[in-house]
Amino acid sequence: MSDVKKYLYILTTGPEVAYRAASPFFLATTAALMDHEVSMVFTIRGTALLKKGVAEELTVKEGGDGAKLQFFVDQARDAGVKFYVCAPSLDLNDCTLDDLIENEGVVGGSAVNEMALESDVVITF
């Protein structure tokens, strides 16, 4: 049996609560650097974090000081974390796939459920 685990992070938190946005990227990066297979699904307001320009402007610490969310997004991408976008959340966030940063594509409800069933660990934010 392989020691590689499948991790799925489901992110519903959006830019309105920026202080919560960095943790899922940080944890996903850590799992990927431990040689696990890691995916993130962005749904509800989480999708807004993937809009082009948002992560570059969003400071994760209240008050505007500290790291930008882009730092954590870049770390996750560099570690091989895969980003997926929930299809209905595109309309909810008034955007199209072209409005978002690079990602693996759009997934529907059945695909998200299948990903969860196939994962060893599922964490939601």
UniProtKB/TrEMBL annotation:
Coiled coil: none annotated. It comes from the Bacteria. InterPro entries: DsrEFH-like, Sulphur_relay_DsrE/F-like. This is Sulfur reduction protein DsrE. It comes from Sulfobacillus thermotolerans. The lineage of its organism: Bacteria, Bacillati, Bacillota, Clostridia, Eubacteriales.
